[in-house]
Design brief:
It comes from Acinetobacter lwoffii. This is Membrane protein YqjE. The chain crosses the membrane at residues 12-30, 42-63, 93-121, 142-169, 181-207, 219-245, 265-285, 297-319, 325-343, 350-366. There is one protein chain. By secondary structure, the chain is mainly α. Helices cover 72% and strands 0% of the residues. It contains 18 helices and no strands. The protein has helices at 5-32, 36-46, 48-59, 67-77, 90-100, 105-131, 135-144, 146-153, 156-173, 178-191, 196-207, 214-229, 234-245, 268-287, 291-313, 320-328, 331-335, 350-366. Helix 1 runs antiparallel to helix 2 and helix 14 runs antiparallel to helix 15.
């Protein structure tokens, strides 16, 4: 029996509440008993509860949960699929394999759910191992943000693609196998071609890491807010980009189509949200005690600033939230060192956990 729309969100809230209770208890123990190493180790086991729960919840959701779910059921199960082994072929190929073995669409959704949450979990584990911070709270931070659930039920292909990129980044951070990284990049592009945008931005951030780019990027960041406020953005330059794209389907992201259905224009809530976590990341950067980690963290901040600029310049367009995902999906990594990393100077940190809970409550019950 599949989980209908109402039950789905009730169960998700229940999973979140139970996870939040465990996270608060763990954080209090770290604050009071100072057993940070023990709690960080326990977190590697406690994270199994939300991980497995979410895989099954999202995997066995009803077809009325999320805008993409029913659309993909119609496209992938009610129509003939023609595979063209270039571009975004992987999602269709997986569906074709499941159909070949007469497996239902629900099994397909479960498999995609398993991929998405497993990639996020593995990437978070690699990252928290690198910063020696709490994996459980880091995964909980993903659950606290409005975009996380949307990535798993609304923009499914882009969600899986970004999760793959996150894993590739975490492997690169730990100086892992370069062939595996290239394979993951190809995998991400095979799910969703827009992954080329974060890849190019990250490469730029990596190349410029030797220069003091952050002050200049902050200036561009503020300028982009002003430009978007006065309704200047990608739509003003889209004819140039569309000519380069030469009619490719991704050009629809720059065409302004759908403005009559989706809210377009300056979004102060997105500006506030991104700026809040930019300020927090700059705070984390100043608190890091390891010079090598500061260099790596600077790359991530640079990436976040540039992708935030892209979001602000996309306010004129429908689906600007999809541009927002490029910056939002790294926010848990930006704040992960605050979750009892050995490399962060400072003591009391439980207020950051409480902040996550308040964000979840605010977006889900009052937004």
């Amino acid at each position: 029996m599949l989980i209908d729309n109402t039950d789905f969100y009730d169960i998700y809230n229940l999973i979140y509440f139970c996870t939040a209770c465990l996270v608060v208890v763990s954080a209090l123990s770290s604050e009071i008993k100072k057993d940070i190493l023990l709690q960080n180790e326990l977190g590697k086991y406690l994270v199994v509860f939300p991980l497995v729960s979410l895989i099954f919840l999202v995997g066995f959701r009803g077809y009325d949960v999320g805008t993409d779910t029913r659309n993909y059921h119609n496209i992938l199960w009610n129509n003939n699929i023609e595979i063209k082994f270039f571009g975004e072929f992987l999602f269709d190929l997986i569906a074709l394999i499941f159909r070949f073995f007469n497996l239902s669409f629900s099994f397909f959704l479960f498999f995609v759910s398993f991929l998405f949450f497993t990639f996020v979990f593995k990437a978070s584990k690699n990252y928290t191992d690198f910063f020696k911070s709490n994996l459980f709270i880091t995964f909980f931070s993903y659950m606290s943000f409005f975009f996380f659930l949307s990535m798993s039920v609304n923009v499914i292909r882009q969600g899986v693609s970004l999760a793959v990129l996150l894993l590739a980044y975490s492997i690169w951070l730990k100086k892992g196998n370069i062939s595996k990284i290239y394979l993951l990049l190809l995998l991400a592009l095979s799910f969703h071609l827009t992954s080329i945008i974060p890849i190019v931005i990250f490469i730029f951030s990596l190349i410029t890491k030797k220069y003091r780019m952050i002050p200049l990027l902050l200036l561009f960041y503020l300028t982009s807010i002003l430009l978007s406020y006065f309704n200047f953005g990608f739509l003003n330059i889209s004819p140039i980009i569309l000519e380069i794209l030469d009619g490719e389907r991704r050009g629809d992201y720059l065409s302004g189509d759908g403005a009559e259905v989706y809210e377009v224009g300056f979004k102060p809530n997105f500006v506030f949200f991104n700026t809040l976590f930019l300020c927090i990341s700059l705070y984390v950067r100043n608190k890091l005690s390891n010079p090598d980690l500061i260099i790596q963290y600077n790359i991530l901040i640079s990436y976040y600033i540039i992708t935030s600029i892209f979001l602000f310049m996309a306010f004129q367009l429908a689906f600007s939230d999809r541009w927002g995902l490029f910056s939002w999906f790294v926010i848990p990594f930006l704040i992960a060192p605050l979750f009892y990393s050995a490399f962060i100077k400072g003591s009391i940190r439980i207020h950051y956990v409480l902040m996550l809970i308040l964000i979840y409550i605010g977006f889900n019950f009052y937004a």
